[in-house]
Amino acid sequence: MKRILLFFILAAALMYGILHGNLWRNNLNWLPPTAMGRRNTLDTCLLKPAFESLVGVDKIYPFLCANDFIRVAEFHGSDKFELPYGIKRAEQFFRLALSRLQNCGLSSEDDDRVACRRCIVVGNGGVLRNKTLGEKIDSYDVIIRMNNGPVIGYEEDVGRRTTFRLSYPESIFSDPIHYDPNTTVVLIVFKPRDLKWLWEILSGQKISAKGFWKKPALNMIYKSSQIRVLDPSITRKTAYEWLGFPTRFPKKEKPKHPTTGLIAITLAFHICHEVHLAGFKYDFTDKNSSLHYYGNETMSQMMQNEYHNINAEQKFLKNLIDKNFVVNLT
Description:
Blueprint: H1 2-30, H2 52-55, H3 69-76, H4 91-98, H5 109-112, E1 118-122, H6 134-138, E2 142-146, H7 155-158, E3 164-167, E4 184-187, H8 192-203, E5 227-229, H9 232-242, H10 260-271, E6 274-278, H11 299-303, H12 310-322, E7 327-328
Parallel strand pairs: 1-2, 1-6, 2-3, 3-4, 4-5, 6-7
Helix pairs in contact: 4-8, 9-10
């Protein structure tokens, strides 16, 4: 009897060791070296994400940390690409900017422990107008918004809560009326000047507007603890792997880069178990239709944009929806 009991104890210990080892290896690919103590809660979900075949096993922890970003860049190959797809020739700017941030955690400790995150990425498309999706949007675990798409005054259609807001210096809120203590601001870095701007604005330095395509924010309404820097490999995956952009464009053609919306969806695929979308549908047949759910801009301005390949993005989104990788609420 004792031998049988001993056999079961040893077998259980062996199974625990194997299971623990597999979980540890899975987490190692996802978590930054500074955060090895955190668990990848997606591993605790009973069902695999619908989009798992798209993301694969190479899951990227989305935010850079001050004391290991070089090592993480080398691991993901970001040291071989210049911005916005890597850190090459911008290492000193990353070091300066990251030194001003207090942490690189996914979010608050409570959010880190949420298993099987249900996420919604809220685009700024005019299709959100009069859809009264606000209450539905607020019901998700994680709500990702981008740029300066407002919440105040549009709550009925777009909701009130914001977990992550992806922005760059030219698109971040600067009016304190938009401040939300529960929002984590994710800076998408397109050029070294963006990192210098972040260091200047958090250090109380004088900010130069040179090098920006329009005037950047001259004051920061968020606390440094609320700010993260997105790993450029997330942007690179969006451009090269999912949109199929060439690594080099012809000299006569302006390089194309992903929109903030597509980058936000890529982020969601790396931190969420289920991803829904809202506000990503555009009417290309009517150039006078509303571009955003706010303001007076029309589709004609989107059609004239030479910085993005909107047709490629719409095709990719349709593919995601057709394969049931995401659910589109609009």
